[in-house]
Amino acid sequence: MRPMGRDYVEETIRSGKLRGPDRTCPYYPCHREGHDCTWCFCPFYPCLDESKGGLWVKNSQTGKTVWSCKGCEWIHEPKIAERVLAELLKVRNKPGAPNRSQLLRILRRISEEDRGK
Ligand code: SF4
After folding, report:
1. Cα dist from 72 to 32, 61, 63, whole Å
2. Contacts of 25 (CB under 8 A, 6+ apart)
3. How remote is the CA of residue 94 from the centroid of ligand 1, in Å?
4. Taking 70 as the threshold, does the pLDDT of residue 3 lie above it?
5. pTM of the model
6. Residue nearest to atom 1 of ligand 1 (CA)
7. Could you give the CA distance from residue 77 to residue 36 in angstroms, rounded to a whole number?
8. What is the pLDDT of residues 56-86, one digit of tens each?
9. Does residue 1 register a pLDDT over 70?
10. Does ligand 1 come within 6 angstroms of the Cβ of 47?
11. Among protein residues, the one whose CA lies closest to atom 2 of ligand 1
């Protein structure tokens, strides 16, 4: 997770609240009307899971390949945003949490639930 993203995610976990659609944001709606903005900085970044809508792209300025989340609506679905917050609240008091392996387990669990497994 990027440092700015980590601060944002930690602040969201501290607040324990979903943000919902943030119509005050100058970029709203960056995905679609009514989406949930809680995980604008995704705690799973980079998930490397193309089934979510993310993909590798070449940065036009640096030429480096980066993970782009532009096509991901999954994390912005209200029921998914709520599930992610609930899972992160469960681990928030554990030292060093959420670490990368906890995050990937959470991502896998919610993805499986979402697919009805
Ligand atoms: S593709 Fe979606 S779930 Fe994956 S890191 Fe990007 S925003 Fe998060």
Report:
1. 11, 22, 22
2. 37, 40
3. 24
4. no
5. 0.90
6. 54
7. 6
8. 999 999 999 999 999 999 999 999 999 999 9
9. no
10. yes
11. 72
